[in-house]
Amino acid sequence: MAMLQRQAVGLQAPKRSVLRAPISRTRAVSVRADGAQIQVDVDKPLGLKLDQSTATGGGLVVKAASGNAAKAGIKAGDTIIYTSSFFGDELWPADKLSFTNNAVANCPSPITLIYVPGENTKVNVKRLPKKPAPKRFGRKLTPAEKALASHICVDCGYIYCDSEPFEETAANYRCPQCNAPKRRFVAYNSDTGKTTGVAEGTAGTIATVVGGLLGIAVLAYLAASV
């Protein structure tokens, strides 16, 4: 079970803290009761080389696993059956190699993967439904933290609660939770939970995703027309 790191916040000298404590990303986050499917969160770059599975159940077979994927316990020969969607808010069946690679490339880190150890002969991946992504965060701000909260990282949900004004932090400041650059933070109202402004790079990411979806649609149309 993932361990949550607690940070003490004093009233006299508040320390930096997070709204949502991160889960462990180095091993299984949850395992199904039957032990057949394993769910992990893996930081990018994943270190995975995938191919279309020819097994009965389908999915994407792991041809090679290194780096973060290997640390998460994924091995060559395992079969990926679910991955994070483009925006990370859903899990999508991993039944098509090109589509899955595109989704993973555009999804913010970490990527949630559900895999079957070895060859997949029991789960029909083509019939799997989309489902909500697991919640990664859950701890609420303390009153002292809430009074200092001013900005939030749009990539992982880290709340900046330092006594130093966010605008005065160094230009090379990075999110301590996901390592995103300073430009990925936007103003945050801890009373309403709403943000103000748009993080730099968001429009480009959306344009890339939309362009990718349009490209896939065109290819699908052309393939159907042949």
Automatic annotation (TrEMBL):
Transmembrane annotation, as ranges: 203-224
GO molecular function: iron ion binding
Keyword Transcription among UniProt keywords: no
Record keywords: Membrane, Transmembrane, Transmembrane helix
Highest rank taxon of the organism: Eukaryota
InterPro entries recorded: Rubredoxin-like_dom
Domain Rubredoxin-like positions: 148-188
Protein name per the record: Rubredoxin-like domain-containing protein
Origin species: Edaphochlamys debaryana
